[in-house]
Every structure is written in structure tokens, then in C-alpha cells.
Amino acid sequence: MSFEDRLGPLSPPSPAGAELPATLILGEVPLLQKAIDAWPQQNHVQGLLPALIDRLINRLNELGDVSRARVAELPIVEVGGPTRKSPNQVVDPTSALAGLYDAEDNVLPAGIFNIEGPDSYIHQLRNYGMLRTTLTPTAIGERIARISDQSQPMKDRPEKALRLLRLLDAYTGPPGSALPPPIVNMLRASACLPVADAFLTPFECWDSRGEDILLCDMVSPRIPFTVVSQHLRDCLGWAQVPFETLRSQLRKVLETETRPSHISDSDVLDRIEAVLKDIAAGFQVGRLSQGNIASLVQSLGAAAWVPTASRNRCVAGLGVLEQIDLGTKYHSVAPHLLRIPGMEALLRRMGICDRPTQTSLLSTLREIAKQLSETDIAQPTRDSLMQTSILILNELCRSIQGKESEFQDTLIPTEDCQLVPAPEVLFNDMGGDPTCPPNGLRFAHSLVSISLANAIGLRRLSEEDFAQGGDGIESFHIGEDLTVRIRGVLQDYDIDHSSNEWVANADDAKARSVTFLVDEANFEGRRVIGGLTGFQSGPALVVHNDGVFTDEDFKGLGNIGQGGKSGMPNSIGRFGLGALSFYHFSELPWVISGKYCLFLDPSKRYLPREQENIRRSAALVPLSFCKRSKPLEGLFGFNANEEEYKGTLFRFPLRTASQAAESTLSDKKFNARDIMKTIDRFYAYARESLFFTKFLVEITARRRTADLKTITLWSVISTRETISHTAEKRIAATKLSLRLKAPQTTTEAPEHWLVTRTQTTKEAFPPQLQPLFPLHRLPTPTFGIAVNLSKEDNIRNSRLFATLPLPVSTSLPVHIHATWILAQDRRSIRYDAPDAAGQRTLDTVYNQHILEKAIPLLYIKTLAIVLAHHPKTVQIFWPGKAQDDPSRIIAMEFYKQVISTKDPVLLSVQEKPIAPANSIIHSFNKTPNAVRKVLSELKVPNYVPASYIDTSLREEWGSLRFDSAKEVSNILRENTAAIQKLWQTPALTPKDILPVIDYLVKERETLDGIPLLVCGDRKLVEFRSSGDRRIFASHRNDLVRLFGSGTVVSQEFPDHHAQSWVKLNVNVCMLDRQGMRHLLAHHDQAIVPANTKAINAAQQAWYKDLLKFLATPGCPVKVQDLADLPLLPSVSGDLVVSLHYAKVGNVWWRYPHEEQALTTVLRQLGVIAVDGQLGGVQIHDMNVLVRILPLFGQLNLSPQEVLRRVTTKDWDAFVKSLKVWMQDFYLGRLSAADLKILNKLPFFLGRQGDIY
């Protein structure tokens, strides 16, 4: 039985032809809404509820949002037996939530509601989101209670428990919901987590997260799931493994008796390290207290829990934190463990020391001496003990830090495998087979290195040999602890920057070239200066220049730290740091120049002592003393037989691994390959080192192989040419041409630079800064700029220079040189932040003065010179947005001075130099490129199209003129003829014009008078705020078809652009009533208000097309809006009439499907016939009698006149077509006047009762 059969018809029946009042008719949807309102009564009728539910679900799409929300709360869904629940209580069977329930839980759909399909009940309820698909706090609590209640039956309880956990993980994951506190408490207290065959609370188990496995797997059962949500982990108490669990895990893994057999020693270490890492993290952030750590140490007792570097374990008393090799006496903690944050602090708290104490080391040496005194000890054991004693001595030297007096009682290994006190031992540093030592002395064991001997202060055999050199040796003794200073400088002083020091020395010495040589020649076996054999064999770095040292230079190096240039303020290197950089590479540098050779030994380890047993830090010897120095022979023209060397050689024997291990200067060792890489890195500085030097023109790197062949590694060679210019005379301009041979290349690459330099006096500085000149020994202040003429694009990798490049990058496109006050490490300029009172140090103020006053002015002058000689490249050298303080200061001051400069630093569109004050400048970050293109094509004389100035760098630009909207609009109005001429060429297109118009509109500039309006006929006209011509921006396709392309905006402009111009009060408009009247009035036929208008057949088609357009839904103008205009074509095709006339005049509206006879008769009677559907005009009454009788009334013709005008055949057809309307129903609707007219019409034949 259908829904209608049970309820009766949804609306009362009506008799044929009769209509009921609308208030008595109730549609199905309103009836359903009433049923929803009275839902409790719907089940009182037997069988009604299923039919009503069926109708309700199938009409959900017709119900409103409020009614559907009501339906979601009605008990309509079968869930088993007679029970029904509301959709919002029923779980969607396809959702993940459904897996938490059994059918007995009465929340899953049953019966017909469990049938899936496109039109099924469940599908429709699902579509409107009426079913439960996600967890709610109520559902979570109910499921936790249900799962943890073991007394109640449940199918697949473990699987449901895991599924609930997964859903909770997703529910609380980002950006999920937080569980309310009652649910959290319930979750923590309930045994709802499945582990094997049991259910545990969260505190009794852990999840399967991989990072936690090693922390608790031996003490906490694990569920087969990993919780990802941090909120859920917090709720479960699983955010961090508890300390008690960690301690239990550590104890468990160390118990060999109870440890599972499958846990290997490696597994034990993994777990120990994991637990220690977690405890270290907790201890570091304060989650674990010192008391926790103390209890942990107590529980570990004497167990071997410390992971060592050899992947073993030791007790805490034998472990040390630092990585040292002391044989089997001590064990270093695994190094990777110490890299963990907080681990060192934890291990110290657990009783592990950094290194063994001096007391422990000395005690061990005594134990070894006692063992060696036994006569029956085997030789391998003796050798092992010798090696161990050497390791311990090295460690002891490190801890005592070179205080020789503290080694007097130290036991030293001797060549006869005994340990005796240090004063009784002599170190053989001469090699070969020495003679017997003096009485009471023994030679040190061969394992004792020279560095160890130096550290202990053992007497050396070579000191007697060096003493034979005579009285020509001058010794230096520096009071300060020089090694500490050198080590500190080397840590702060980049090794790659050290090349600058040698280049500076060369330029100060007026040398024209400097050469770096990697010397791999080996002279082993040939004697040199007494006892220095180790510094002549093996690789060395040699630096040569063709200048010669003075006596003052040698004294300066000998008294290192004070510097040798205190009387030479115009020298580059003036702090002595240049010499300190020597020790990056060597323990014992040599300097050979003029008549002397200087040896530098700041650590006082290698130069033989003076006769009074006084150690030297340097020794200056006559050049004749170096006759036995084979490594120098033949290098750069050196001849040991000559009394004077015309040049300077620095020789740096590379620090060996053994020297580095014991060095108090640096722990960096070098071999030939290392130094080759370092020299290659020097190239990056060398290629930039000749811009501002006074004398130096060439820097080269070479290699001398073991077979004494010399190979060029790289080279930088320059030539200089003075450039004439019209800038200030005190500015020197030079074209610097470089020939660059880079490392690992065989060809030279040319590079061209323009370098400008100027200088001033100290009196030009503010008075408060002038005392800085003698304080810092500042030379005459000079400033320079270097411009790379070989670059074709923007440069953003420049440097600051103090004659030579500093490792200070700037965001300027040029290199900047000045006489700066440098930081102590000579790698940067002094530029300190202001203090709390906003004051800066005078050193910083000095440098800031240079940045603000000297450099910007020179920068502007430099650009003028570049523009005069290289106009096409000048643009890339203008400063942009700076990223660092020095660049920002220079750029801001530069642009401040550019505003008023008279220097021609810009290039106009006509490629002529021009000063900024006389220009209209393109603003690349404000003005579109299309504007630049148009103005460039117009060749505006003072226009500068290149992107020189970043207008975002300043808020105020004074009198400078940019291509702002106002400037652009004025230019366009003044160049109308030129624009029209340009429009005739391919150089100007609508794609160029559109951004220009958008720019002007965006900047609120009027378009009046600007000749950039492109019409559909591709004619360019002016935007005008007055005038008769209108250009339309809407319905352009239709208007082009009806009125021609000249009436619309070019369709090359998108609609949203063209239509946006309508609001600008110009001659662009949208189609509306007035617009259509404008178009009709200016049409070829000049359609103006009239009742009728004669047309021809060809024109009729146009009128029909027009009316068709007016009838379209999107047309904003309707024929009714034009009722006074003759637009309706007659059926005859020779006339158009206005709608107004058609409604009140002698006009017949022809219905599309009516009999042709009606129109034929009316036309013969002089009635104008028009198509009733044209133009969207609707015929409201289809009753022909109602329409035609008033028309006959207006004609007021007698029957005889009617029959006279109409042919008999046509009148017969006319009467016949009206027969269908001669029925009581239609006649009853006629007025008395219509019936009177009908009675007058000749419808009847002569016989009574007959009708045509």
C-alpha cells in the first residue's frame, strides 16, 4: 500500500474546471514537517510508521536544514528487534567506529537500514551526516568501561581494545581534541590495554614505540601498537619512561644470571646506553634530581656499567671521560656517548673523572719501575711496560703543563729498559750512533720523542753542537707566556686568512711579487744547523717576495707581539699578528733575508739552549751560518755562499703528527696534500689582493716535487692603466687588468676592474676621533672602491678591504677599502653595538664616520667614472637593499647624497649621461615594467629606464622625480601624437597598455585625456570624462554583432579589467537602458522614439536579432525599457512598431502556434501583426476571443465592410479557426462589451442556427 493510500491524498480533490483556495492545499513537504512536529503520535496508526519513515528519508533533500536536524534526533533507525534509535545515536557501519561494537550493543543499523545501495536508507542518512562516525567523550568512557569489565561477554575483546586505542590516537592527534579529565582518570585506572592474554592498566605496560624499547623492554610488557599522539601519551602516563622503570631496566640488564639468553653483550651495551641517554636528558632539564642519581649509583654497586670506546664495559673507577690511550690501565668512555647533551655532567655525577690524576699517574710509573727491576721478566713484557710508561709520561706532561721543575723526580724510560729520575737522563737528538753518555747519565729510551723530551726538560745532545756556532748568534727571550697568546690567536685567526699577512709584508717591503711554494723535497740524512735535523726533512711551506727585511723587521719578529712596524704607520701589517699566523703551520719558522737568518721557537722546545741552560724563543744568526742548510739552496736564487740574499724567504717546516700531539701552539698537523689544499684556498684571497696594494702586482703559488721539479699551481698577475676622468682631481682612477690562473686549470682567465682611490688628512675627522691616529698607529686615511667590469649581472658577494681583503662579506655590488680600525683578530672592523646609554666606542664611531662620510661620496664619483667609460654596465653597481650594517649605512648615505649630486650617474633612454636631479627615474619596485617599456619607446628625453634606485630604501626622496602615476599620466597626455604613431607599430600592444592603465588606476590617477583606450576596431582613442561617444565594456560580443566593433572596448582586455574602468567617470560604460538608447540613436538607422518606422526586408533581420538579444537572460535591457522605440517588426516585414503602440494601438500580437487565418484576415482589415514572443514579450491570455474582440471593437467596422475587405475564403478559414473557442467555458469569460462585438461579427449563414 502506498503512502498516499495510507494517509489519503495530500491535497483535496477539486471538480473539473474548478479551483480551490490556496489555503486549503497542503503539499507533501509541509505535511511531513507537521508529522515531525507531532512525531510521538505517528505510531498510533497500525503500519503508519514504516511508510512515514520511508517518505521522510526519501524527501530529505526537500527538507530545510532545521527539519533535517530534527530528523537526526527522531527514533527512526532499526538497531535490532523492535528498538529504534535516532540517526545521531547510530554508528555508521562503514566507519572505523563500528569495529568497537557488537550487534548486541544496539548502536549498529539493522534490518532494512543495514542494506547498502545508492538509494538505500543508510546511504541517504550518511549523505546528510546524520550517523555517528567519530568518537565522543561519552562513547570513549562507555567503551573503556565495557572493555575493562571482564564479567560482561564481548566478542574479540583484545581486537576491540586495540581498535579503541588506535581511534583514541587519531582522535587526540593534531589537530585533535583533548580528553576531558574524568576520561583521563578513567583511562589510567582501567585495565583496558591488551597484552598477550591479559588486560593491563597503562602503568603496568608500555606501547611499541621504537625509541622506548631499549628503555623498558625487560621490565614492562608491551602492547602491539605505537601511540603517536603526544596528548594521548600524556594521558596514559607514557610521555617519559619513569625513573624507577629505567633503574629497574638497568639493574635487570646487568644481572647475568637472570638475563635472557638471547640478549648478547652488544644488546646489553645498547640498553645501557639508551637508559643513560634518557637519564642524562632528564637530569639536564631538572626532571631528575641529584638524589635520583645517587640512588642509581648505589643500586649499581660494583657492576661494570660504563660503556667504553672499545665496546666493552668497565667499573666507574677505571673509566675516564676524555679519549686517551693509557694501555690497559684506564678506559675511555665511548665517545659517541659523550656527544649526547647532558651525558658528561651525568657521568661526572656518577663518579667518572675526566682524566687520571697526577698522583695516580706517578704511582703507576713507580709500579712499572718495580716490575722492571725484576730479573725474570720476559722481553715482550718489558717492551709493553716501556710503551705504557711512555703513554703515562705523555699524560703526565699534559697535566703538569710544561713546568720542568715538577719533573725532577719523574721516572724516565732509558735505553736499557729501566725507569730512572729525569736528571739522570740525556736525550739524543742528533741521530746516528752516539758516543757513550757522560758519567752518571743514561740515554733516554728510543720511544721517548723529542716533544716528550722537551716537555720534561731532558738535557739534549745537540745543545753542545749548536753552542759551537760562535758569538754571532743573537738570542731573544720574551717575558710573556707567548705560547698561550699564540694558541689563542690561532684559534680565532682563520688559517685561510693568513696569506694576507705575507702579502702585506711583501707590499710593505715594496716587493712587486710574492710566491707560495709547497716544498716536497726531502733532505733527510744531510746535516743542517745543529740538532735541527727534523726541520729540514719532509715537506715545508715556503713564501718568497722580492723585498728585503730591515734590522727593525728582524727585531720586530724576534720580539713578536710588539710588531716591527711601530715606526711605519703607512704599513699594512702593524700589530704583529702576521708573525703569529706563522704558527698555523710550523713549530719552528725560518726567515731568511738580507744578511740574516731568523729561527723562531716560541715554545722553547727545539732551539738548543744557551750555555747557561737558558732556553731561547728565537735566534738571529748570520747568513753564513746557513751554509749547511740544503733545503734553501737554489730556491728563488738563494745561494748559501753569498753574504747577502736579495729577497725574503719564509720557510715553515710543516708540523708533524708527533709535534702536533705535544705542541703548546696548535694541535693541527699538516702533510704536503693538506698544505696544497690550503694554498689552493689562498687563491680566493689572492685574486682580490691586488686591487689596493701600492707596489705588489703579482701573486703566485708553486709546488716543488720530491725530484726538485717546480710546477705552477695558480697565479694572479696584474697590469694597471690610469683612467682620465672629469671627477675631482684628488680621485685616482685605474683600470686593473688581471690574468687569473685558478687551481686545477691550465688556462688564464682575464678579468677587468676599475679601481678608484682617494685620501684625506686626519684633520678632516671630527676632533674627538683624531687621538685615535697615534693610539692605533693609523696611516694617512685612504679610501677605495673596486668595480668588476667583467660582470654582466648583479654582484652580491663583495668584501670590505683594509688594503687586503677581510673575511667580511657585504651586500654591496662593489668592494670597499678604507683605513679602518680593525678588531683584534684583524678579520673584521671594529663595529660594536651601542651600550645601555646608546653610546658607541670611539673606534666604532671612527669606522662609522668613514662609512657615512667618505665612502658614499667616493661611490657616487666612481659611478660617474664608470658611466663615462662603461655606460652599459653601470646599473649593476648601484647599491640595493643591504643585509648588513656597513652596507646599510653606505647605501642610505649614498642615496641621501644622490638626491642633490650634480654628477651624471644615470643613463637616459637616449643613452646620454644625466644627473638624478634632471631625470625622471624608473622605480622598479613601484612602477610596472610596462610603463618603462612605453616611456622608453616614446624616447622621453630625460627618462631613465634602468632600475638604478630602489625606492624602498628611503621614505623621502626630496626633489627626485620617479615615473609615478602623476608623472606618467602627464607624459602620456603630452605625447598623444607620438603614442598614436607608436600604436601603428608592433612596439605597442594591448598587453603593454593594460598594465599602464592598471597602474594609473591603482594610484588613483585620472585617465581623462590619456590616449590608451583601445576599441574593438583596434583604434586608439582617449579616455574622456565628457563627450558624446561611449565605449562599452560589457556584452561586447553581442554589441559588436549589432552595432560594430568600434562601440566596445577591445576584447584583448579581459572583462574584469574593462568593466573596472566604468567606475572611473570616463567614457567607458556598462550596457544599460541609457546605453542602449545611445547605441540605437547613433546607429545607422537612428532609432528614436516613434510609434512606427518603415524598414526593408534586410533590416527586419537586424531588428529580430536585436530583440533576440534583449530577450536573453543576461541582457540588462529589456524591450519594455525601450517601449517608446519602434523595435518590433511586423509580420509583413516592412514596418517596426514600438511596444507602447503595440499595446494600445491597432496591433495584433500573433501567438507562435495559432492559426495563420487569424493573421491573414486582420492584415486585410488593416491591422498590424507582430510576433508576440519577440523581445521576450509575453502574451498573458491565450484565449483568442479575449484578445481579438477588443481589436474588432477598435476597428468599428460593419459586417458588410468586414466581408468587403476580406476574401470569402480567408473569412471562412477565420471563422473556422474560432469555432474551438465558441464554447460555454470560454464564452463565459467574455465581458458584456466583448459579447456585443461578437454578436456584430458576420459569423452565421443565412439559415437559422448554422454557423460557419
From TrEMBL:
It comes from the Eukaryota. It holds the Pfam family SACS. Residues 480-702 form the Sacsin/Nov domain. GO terms for molecular function: Hsp70 protein binding. InterPro entries: HATPase_C_sf, SACS/Nov_dom, Sacsin_chaperone_reg. NCBIfam families: P_loop_sacsin. This is Sacsin/Nov domain-containing protein. It comes from Tulasnella calospora MUT 4182.
